[in-house]
Every structure is written in structure tokens, then in C-alpha cells.
Amino acid sequence: MIQRIQTVYLLIAALLIGLLFLLPFAEIAKDGAIYMFNFKGIVLDGTLKENGTSISILIGIIIALQGVAIASFKNRARQMRLTVFAILLMLGLLGMFFFFTFYSFSGANVSLKISVLFPVVAIILDYLAIRAIGKDEALIRSIDRIR
């Protein structure tokens, strides 16, 4: 299972998305208060200002999709479909990051953290995994033609 390069790509992508549960996404400074934006939502001094349950659920779904894609190494077509769907969900996650950050607090000073780039890196890794899955599928088809 881990011996294929696409599995390594998918595993690293899943770990990067999993790190989103641990790291903050942004700091928002408005009216002298500094809000922290993480998977729970936008928080000020331990009190929740904007609920981030939708982000938490989306991150969980993406991790589950990555896990199922890793486990589907024998069914390359399913693995490819799950990976494409995970990419679409990660694009939605990026959209939610920017919506929560910039539209919840208009006119605020926003300081994005490095963890905002994790979905972008995971999208690139998923794309590389799709290419590797396609190469495996082409290799299998060429071997079937020889027989």
C-alpha cells in the first residue's frame, strides 16, 4: 500500500489537512482586539465570535476521503475519483477560509498564518497523486495488451 508514490502523496496531503486541527489560520485585529481564527471559528479570549463548525466538518470529510483513497489502492478508478473530489472540497475550504477571514470582519487587519497554505500544498500533492495513478493505470493496460 505505501510502496506506491501516489499513496505517499495522499498520505502527506492527509497529514497536512490534519494539521489544520492544530494550527491557527489567521489573526484578525479590529478595534484593538485580536481575534484568532482556527478550526473552531473566530475566537476572542476564549469566547466564540463566529462558529466554524462547517470548517471542522469539511476538514474531517477531506481527511476521511484521503484515507479512503489511500485504502482504495486496488481500485485505481475509485482512488482517482475520490482524489478529484477531495481537491474540489479543498478548493471550497480555501474559499471558506477567505470568506471567514475577510468578510466576517470588513476593514480589519488580517494576518494569515502558514497553515492557510496547507490546502494549496495538499491540492498539488493530490494532483501529483492523480498523475501517478493515471501512469499506473496506463502501465496495467499496456501489460494487458501484451498478453
Could you describe the 3D structure shown?
The protein is an alpha+beta fold and 147 residues long. The chain has one domain (5-146): Butyryl-CoA Dehydrogenase, subunit A, domain 3, CATH 1.20.140. Helix content is 61%, strand content 16%. The protein is built from four helices and five strands; from the N terminus they run αββββααβα. A five-stranded antiparallel β-sheet has the order 4-3-2-1-5. Helix 3 runs antiparallel to helix 4. The two termini are 26 Å apart. The mean pLDDT is 90.
Overall pLDDT metric:
90
Low-confidence stretches: none
Order of helices and strands: HEEEEHHEH
Number of domains: 1
Rg estimate, integer Å: 18 Å
Approximately how much beta-strand content do the residues carry? 15-25%
Q: Please count the beta strands (DSSP E, at least 2 residues each).
A: 5
User: What is the CATH architecture assignment?
Assistant: Up-down Bundle
Query: Between the first and last Cα atoms, what is the distance in angstroms?
Result: 26 Å
Largest sheet, strands/sense/barrel: 5 strands, antiparallel
* CATH fold-level topology: Butyryl-CoA Dehydrogenase, subunit A, domain 3
Helicity level: 55-70%
Q: What overall form do the CA principal axes indicate? A: elongated
Question: How is the topology of this model organized?
Answer:
Layout: H1 5-18, E1 26-30, E2 33-38, E3 41-44, E4 47-51, H2 53-71, H3 76-103, E5 109-112, H4 118-146
Antiparallel strand pairs: 1-2, 1-5, 2-3, 3-4
TL;DR of this structure?
The chain is an alpha+beta fold and 147 residues long. The chain is built from four helices and five strands.
